[in-house]
Amino acid sequence: MNRLFFMASVWVILLVTLAPSCVFAAWFDTTWHYRVPVVIPATATVNSTIKIDVDFNALLTSLSATGTFDSNSPRVVRPNDTLSATQQYTDSVYAGATDALGNGRGEIRFILQEAGPVTYFLYFDVTSSGLKAANPQLPINGNFEFGTVAGASPQIPVGWLNATRSNAAMDAQMRPVESPTVIDQTTVTSNGNPNTGLAAYLQGFRTATDAGGNAVLTKSITIPASNPGNITIRIRPQGWDSGQNANLTQYDFMQVRLLSGGAVKLNIVGPALNNYLTCPFSPNYSVNGITAAQPGWGQYNYWDNGSGSNNHTLGMPALYNRGLEPWITCTANLTAVAGQVLTLEIRSTTFVGYRSWFLVDDLEWSVVSGVSLGAPIAYFAALAPANFNCVEVGGNSASGHLYTKLVATSFNFDVVALKADGSVESNYVVNPLPPDPNIIPTPTPVPVVTKPVTVELVEGSGSTACASRNPLSPAISQVLTFTASDLGRKAVSAINVGKAFANVRCRVTDANQSPSVVGCSADNFAIRPSAFTAVTSTATADLTGNSVSASPPIIKAGLPFTLTAASGTVGYNGTPLVDNSKLLAHAGSMQAGSVSGSFTAANIATGTVTAAMFNYSEVGYFRFAVNGIYDDGFTAVDSGTDCTPDFSNSLNAGKYGCKFGNNANTAYFGRFIPDHFALTPGVATPACNASYTYFGQDGFSTAFTLSAQNAANAVTQNYIGSFARLGLNAWANFGFTAPGLPAGSVLSASVTPPIGLWNNGSAALSAKHKVSRPTALIGETPVTINAAPVDLDGVTMTASTVAATTPLRYGRIALQNAHGSELLDLPMAMHAEYWNGNNWIVNNEDVCTTGIPLTLADPISGDGLMPTELCAWDNGSTGNSGLGCAIAGSITQQFKQPPTAGNFNLNFKTPGVGNSGALDVTAAVPNYLKYNWKGLGDVSPSARATFGVYKGSVGVIYFREVY
């Protein structure tokens, strides 16, 4: 809130009208101080001419007014308080005669625009009230008193339509009072004086020798539709030439006609009327040269007279004696052309020969009789205020504030007229005392005095002088009319502003005096939008926030997207803000996340701002709850005391909230996806203990943690459920690789799918792998697994190691031939082995291999030993080996599967007496433990068990078997 006072201490005139309240009309212009009613009778019709003589000095005297009448001041004002369109005040004419200038009286003429009975008003003033400009309205100018006298020829007088001449030597212009000497047949000093006033219009050859031709002057006039009355013109023919009734082709004559489109509607003056006797249209009559007995051309203004006598052959009166130069009044009735818009033509036609010319003056038509003046009305003086202020209704007149307003919501405030000390000027409007009955006839009711001021809203910032401040656009202005009962303080009518403005003041202009008193409000205020009516975005995949796969667009969390905030209010150019506490994420989300970025100032022409550098920290969708997008700075001029610190659009102690925001939840914006995945390595678990895994074995596992992250590397906790678009149970989704494998080895999936579960944007995973056997034998090989997962939206990461290296061994199961007595148990070597880079060695760490059944085959039929006669010591029938004897062997004898330190502890039970022979033993091992035993490809191992076939050496001296 900024507070400034703009003071102006000026004593001026307070205009006070005195008139009967029953006829008191609005004052046309308060810089005029006097008026008199012009009472027009019922017989008057529209387009009639009102002509009335006015003695302004007498009117001023009747009002006890002093000062010099301002001859520029008369204005004829219609009942609707507008200027009469066509009007004139002729200072040089009064009571139908020429009158001295500057004597405070003259003739008023105007064209009536309302039918009678009606009252017009004639305003006037004195010079001490300030000189008035010339009347801007168009004059009738039938008396040729307006315009430049002796102007360019041909001259078009003010208010006339056109002027032409066919011969450049012809006279065609307004002329002053003059007595020029003219020479032709004789020499004369002609009387060039106007009929009335100071000028008349001249046509013909007075200046130059007659060379023939015509001059034409035209004016448009509208004839009243009823009671049109007559048209009258004053003419003065002069010269030596002549004309004749009905002769329109020879000699010199004058015509005055009313035309329509070239057609003659009414003849007023001219030969066509055959009325030379009553309206002579040429200075001489006849087509002959003048003789003693008959009129004709050759003498100056001989009319119908012959030479040597005033014999008046046509019977004209003495007014037309030889050489006289009378003004002639010619009149025609307008009934036949009532209601028509016609062209008045004044035409002078001359033929080569003697000179003649014509003066024209005092044209008038449809003049209303019975017009009178009413009682004059005057203004008195009073005191103007020193300043004005605008405050909230009821606020302190000097220090009151103006509070924040809402766009398109009506408001008002008090306008206060102030004294110089800041107190209320309660006498700003004062009703006058009853008028002096000697000035205005009693009884005269005292009218209610009013005083209009202009109240407008202006730009409020800075220290610009009040009168120089720019008004709001579009203008917000009203006229506030004070009366005495207002005591200098009055509320404006409701104001409704359709645009937003951040800094506004009220300005009051009192132009009831000169100079005007101008004051601005001490306090300024804001007119803010009520809300952001729309908050939209380029992130519009699914405005409901439900679809987990909708696109486009899909936007990575933390990367830019666009937000648009629209106030729907022209003039708003503030900067919206984001309130992250008002963010709402989609259903099932773990957190709302946050929006980063900022708006710039809104476009003042639209009240809308679009910014493209916003980013959202989470996955899925979000929307803004009510007031999630807000502005708390547009009303800065009012913050603190002139608005409440909230979003209220309802008045609280006369105040609205300082802030505004979106007034409803927005649509959902999205869909947002992670920017990338991040991997936290875990440990690798070999297939057997913590030691090793065989090439080709399914397989070793890796444990690691995968997180979905935004561009700022923060975990997107909403990457869960259906919004987690990376399936964790498909090995192929992870993009596993194992760089540096030996030739022929390939990394592939285990039959066991990965396991894991998304929780708050992270997942603890375990994935099992298989690396196929290389093409060639290779020693123990450390293997590293990398992952580059890709979800259904293409979210991925740079390949990263999931766990530390794990050793892989090229392995096999080996069986060795065995032979012995059929009377003794027979052990057969069966071991797990791996290639150490140089040799096959027992895989002492193999304590895991299982699922290896043994089978027997009889390679030598009929040798005395059949497969059914041989079994292995195991834990019972078939047992782990598939060849278990019916009776379980001792612990030390039993087949071990898995092996102990790589030894399967394979022992066959003695087949007994008579069961000598051989059987082949095959171990059905998994592919990754087969070997190319026979050079024909990898196969399961086999060996031969022989009983009682091989004897001891004959060189044995002593052999003893102990049982």
Q: Would you kindly provide a written description of the structure presented here, covering whatever features stand out?
A:
The chain is mostly beta strands. The protein folds into six domains: 21-129, no CATH class; 162-365, Sandwich (Jelly Rolls), CATH 2.60.120; 388-437 and 448-528, Sandwich (Immunoglobulin-like); 532-673; 674-808, no CATH class; 810-963, Immunoglobulin-like. It has one helix and 62 strands. The strands form 17 sheets. Strands 1, 2, 4, 9, 22 and 23 form a six-stranded antiparallel β-sheet that branches.
Give a quick summary of the entry.
With 963 residues, the protein is an all-beta fold. 1% of the residues lie in helices and 32% in strands.
Provide tags for this entry.
963 residues; mainly beta; Jelly Rolls; Immunoglobulin-like; 6 domains; six-stranded antiparallel sheet; 1 helix; rod-shaped; disordered N terminus
Determine the structural class based on helices, strands and strand pairing. mainly beta
First and last CA, distance:
118 Å
What CATH first level of the largest domain would be assigned? Mainly Beta
The biggest beta sheet is recorded as: 6 strands, antiparallel
Unreliable parts: 1-24, 433-444
Helix content: under 10%
Question: In what range is the share of β-strand residues?
Answer: 25-35%
Identify the overall geometry: rod-shaped
Characterize the quaternary organization of these chains: single chain
Radius of gyration of CA atoms, rounded to a whole number: 61 Å
In CATH, the topology of the largest domain is named: Jelly Rolls
Count of extended strands? 62
